[in-house]
Amino acid sequence: MAESDSQIVEKILSGDTTAFDELMKRYQRLVYSIAMNYVGLVDDAMDITQMVFMTTFKKLKTVQEPAQIKHWIIRVTYNTCASQARKTIAMSSLEVVADPQDQGHGDQAIHQQTLSKLLDQLNPKHRLAIILKYIEGYPIREIADVLSCSEGNVKNMLYRSMQKLSAIAQ
Amino acid sequence: MSSCSKYQHQIESILAGQAGLDAALNRHLTICSDCKALLALHQEWEPFMEPATFPTEASFQAMRERVLLLVSQKTSKLTSQPNLWAPFLLAAAALALGFFAGRVSFEQRSTFESPNPQLASYSNLSYRSLPNGDVIIGYDITTTVERVTTEQDPIIGEILAQTVVGDDPLNRRLEAMNVAGRIIDPKVKHALIYAMRSDGDGAVRLKASSLLSEYDRDHDVRDAFIEVLRHEENARMRIDAMDYLSRFDAGQLEVLMQELETAQPEPLLMPIREPSNQSNMQ
After folding, report:
1. Would the CB atoms of B17 and A139 count as touching at under 8 Å?
2. Helix B250-263 and helix B235-248: axis angle, to 10°?
3. Which of A102, B20, B250, B252 is deepest in the core (most CB within 10 A)?
4. What are phi and psi for residue B169, nearest 5 degrees?
5. A contact residues 25-54, partner B, Cβ 8 Å cutoff
């Protein structure tokens, strides 16, 4: 029987690095997927995934509800992506835009980048709501937990975000 | 979108997957292109739910290994409180005893095992009491890494050189020197020369001399052995020096011996074999 998140967290806090590896295995795809929808580039998404787990390890002892570690990791991912986005904006004038074909897996990568650019139009929190809803398929209640707001607020965020995106798409 | 506010709550519920279209909303959609577009986008995305193409498990594993490597030195900080402080308290107690016994200096260095020896060990401990009863404790954390590689790997030469001239126990240094004798690496050579000239332990100087005497013609080694003949009192090392120099340049050795005899009428050790004989033998 698989260990619960809180059992894994407890083991990590007692110095068990194998447990931390297990935690990373459990959530690496989720973190990568969210990161990919923020940055749109395979290498950058993997870098962010690494940064998220570094932060997770460093801050783990501050987690108040180990059973909710998944939501906490999503928030760390969101913060890391938002932080990276700010740095990217600051550096954008110095960078050469990479050829999407070089960065990913063909059409899927291009689609991912297009989606990423579209989501760029949203503020980071609304963007996370959209990613969790449409890409990760999370129920509203869980998105509300992750974003620490009410379900009504999440619905409103989705509504406003979709309003904005549909206006852009038109 | 003035009439849209009437339907906003319903649309929000549709976006959340908690409601569907009804007749009233359907009528609204026929006259409101904004809401229609919004729900069209939702319907387009709803079945999408396709995450990014994921990298291979090998890529994920490599990432995890990088993370584990980077955090390994911090692990001890995350261990549970009793385990974390146990070695500190033990060391502090030992140091306190030392103070009372008058045998341990204030900044005594010591080494002890971490709660999890596979992860880290602490060394260079320093301990200081503060007036309010707290303590300041300082320490280095070291971790052990094992890897399989060839003797030609530059890191081997680097590590051996550091071990030869470092503070490791004598047996470890001599073991390193045994391996160093098989390695052709400038750093190892200079470490051996340094050890032969300056090491405080006679066994290390002797071992270095023995290994260097097996070197092929090398100017650095030659100069080091000339120094040995001029200043070293150890007979075995002087023999090594003469053997090496006779192979390198027998004429130069003869000149050197005359110089030494002139400066020192009773040399500590005469050559066992005459340089000329040595060269003839070769």
Report:
1. yes
2. 140
3. B250
4. -60, 155
5. 25, 28-29, 32-33, 36-37, 42, 45-46, 49-50, 53-54
Nearest to residue B79, comparing CAs of A20, A76, A65?
A20
Position A137 confidence tier, pLDDT thresholds 50, 70, 90: confident
Q: Is the dihedral of CA B204, B210, B213, B216 positive or negative?
A: negative
CATH 1.10.10.10 segments of chain A: 121-170
For chain B, list residues whose CB is within 8 angstroms of any CB belonging to chain A: 8, 11-13, 15-18, 33-34, 37-38, 40-42, 45-46, 48-55, 59-60, 63-64, 66-68, 70-72, 74-76, 78-80, 83, 115-116, 119
Nearest to A77 by CA among A61, A55, A57, A60: A55
Residues of chain A with CATH 1.10.1740.10: 1-101
List alpha helices for chain A, DSSP H. 5-13, 17-39, 42-59, 69-91, 100-103, 107-119, 124-130, 140-147, 151-169
pLDDT of residue A105: 47
The whole-angstrom separation of Cα A160 and Cα A125 is 12
| Fold classified for A1-101 | Rna Polymerase Sigma Factor; Chain: A (1.10.1740)
Closest CA to A69 of A134, A19, A123, A125: A19
pLDDT, position A99: 41
Domain A121-170 sits in CATH at 1.10.10.10
Q: How much is the ipTM here? A: 0.72
Q: What is the mean pLDDT of chain A?
A: 79
> CATH 1.10.10.10: does it fit domain B154-281?
no
